[in-house]
Design a protein that fits this description.
270 residues; alpha+beta; Deoxyribonuclease I, Chain A; six-stranded mixed sheet; 8 helices; 23% helix
């Protein structure tokens, strides 16, 4: 009998307490997922509700120092060999301290496989925040390439706050000067993929117009006027094991983002 695929769910919950109140963890219990990566939990450890600590899962959190802001989480059925909370835990802080204070990175290692929950900065609020976003991007690529060079296989789950191609947002013409679809952001994303990393959803669905985030303004969600800014990005050997990838029903609202699901055949181990 073939081994069951490993299911990894990724979601920006825009507040873990709010998502729990909206039934996110009730839905999660129906998915038979092995790993859950969350971004923008917006909670300190003592604020994580009981509903957000499902039975059968080890839960790890990297909250932001600032209350009600950012933060990431990672849940796994299997006990990891090691968990790194923050970039500096991996990279001895080569300029990561400011980003680690914002709670943007969790890494769980299982043998040679690392599963990562990461929350890229947004640059939409100001020119200063956009400049910080670009600093983050320029540091992140060599950071992740170093992990790959060390022989690690990677599944990187996150809200990247970038729509890579025109197919990844509805109104691409009107957003070419907006953060999230700037030419320099898209060029950076292309460099990341050219370095050998794989966008699993796009690998399996090369022509599908599908989105993972919708503005709360107007009727964006009802009319499916969205952006695909949430991803499973993998090293090639893992991407080759991807069996399915999809985005959950946008009309079941736990957040302004929809959960992403991806299944991998990891029966050979790593």
């Amino acid at each position: 009998m073939a081994a069951a695929p490993v299911r990894i769910i990724n979601c920006n919950v825009n507040g873990i307490r709010s998502a729990a109140d909206k039934g996110f963890f009730d839905w999660f219990a129906t998915t038979d997922a092995d790993v859950l990566c969350l971004q923008e939990i917006k909670a300190q450890l003592n604020q994580i509700p009981a509903a957000a600590r499902p039975d059968g899962y080890k839960a790890f959190f990297h909250p932001a120092e600032r209350p009600g802001y950012a933060g990431v989480a990672l849940y796994t059925r299997r006990e990891p060999d090691h968990v790194y909370q923050g970039f500096a835990a991996v990279d001895a802080d080569h300029g990561w301290a400011a980003f680690d204070r914002e709670g943007r990175y969790l890494q769980a290692d299982f043998g040679r496989l690392s599963i990562i929950s990461v929350y890229f900065p947004s640059g939409s609020s100001s020119a200063e925040r956009q400049a910080r976003k670009m600093i983050f991007l320029e540091r992140f690529l060599p950071f992740i390439q170093t992990l790959q060079a060390q022989g690690r296989e990677l599944i990187i789950c996150g809200d990247m706050n970038i729509a890579h191609q025109r197919i990844d947002l509805k109104n691409w013409r009107g957003n070419q000067k907006n953060s999230g679809f700037l030419p320099e952001e898209r060029a950076w994303f292309s460099r990341w993929l050219a370095a050998g990393f794989v966008d699993v959803f796009r690998q399996l669905h090369p022509q599908q117009e599908a989105y993972s985030w919708w503005s709360n303004r107007g009727q964006a969600r009802a009319n499916n006027v969205g952006w695909r800014i949430d991803y499973h990005i993998c090293t090639p050997a893992i991407a080759a094991r991807a069996q399915a990838a999809g985005i959950h029903d946008r009309m079941q609202r736990f957040s302004d983002h929809a959960p992403l699901l991806a299944d991998f055949d990891l029966s050979a181990g790593f």
